[in-house]
């Protein structure tokens, strides 16, 4: 008569039941995951979505972005960076609470002026190939204070930005918009334009 395979295995003592309540184990796992998620969101990166058209055509309404929070720990914001920042004191006084997203235009110590549909940095025009349309307003000249930045939306004539309410202190910067991950057909990096440097008037096309 055949034997079952189990008959050939050595006898083992039944394992002692775990002293840990399975609910406690689950709570520990959830708590660990929550702490990790909080740490990543606070110190590394977070997802954001675009609620308005102020950054058209670069960013469209409902675009989803990854905002990384590491770069500005090691380098200063650069002209052309798309940054997310918490409301300044002036904006908080106007009851704004949600974060803003704009492009860095003026760096600390620079003179910025908008006239004739062109942005000037230290009296030199900037060539901007990505804006929705030329600005139809005049602004400045102003000097950007130390540790502060002048930011504008790419949709220049439909953006509530520095030409309305002033400068952004560095301490208000949350991070840099690094990647658009939605929609998939426009997936890609959001690096500062390589051509983003002041040019002389004689180089204007």
Per CATH, the class reads: Mainly Beta
Mean pLDDT: 81
Kindly state the percentage of residues in helix.
10-25%
CATH architecture: Ribbon
Order of helices and strands: HEEHEHEEEEEEHEEE
Low-confidence segments, given as residue ranges, are: 1-10, 28-43, 195-205
What general outline do the C-alpha atoms trace?
globular
Q: Roughly what fraction of the amino acids lie in strands?
A: 25-35%
Provide the CATH topology.
Umud Fragment, subunit A
Number of helices, where a helix is a run of at least 4 consecutive DSSP H or I residues: 4
The structural class is alpha+beta
> Major sheet: size, sense and barrel closure?
8 strands, antiparallel
Radius of gyration: 26 Å
CATH superfamily membership: Umud Fragment, subunit A
The figure for the number of domains is: 1
How many strand elements?
12
Distance between the termini: 97 Å
Notable features of this structure?
4-stranded antiparallel sheet; disordered N terminus; single chain; alpha+beta; 205 residues
Can you give a write-up of this model?
With 205 residues, the protein is α+β, with helices and mostly antiparallel strands. It has one domain: Umud Fragment, subunit A (Ribbon), CATH 2.10.109.10. The chain contains 4 helices and 12 strands. The strands form 2 sheets. Strands 1, 2, 3, 4, 9, 10, 11 and 12 form an 8-stranded antiparallel β-sheet that branches. β5 and β6 form a beta hairpin. The protein is globular, with a radius of gyration of 26 Å. The N and C termini lie far apart (97 Å). Mean pLDDT is 81; it is low at 1-10, 28-43 and 195-205.
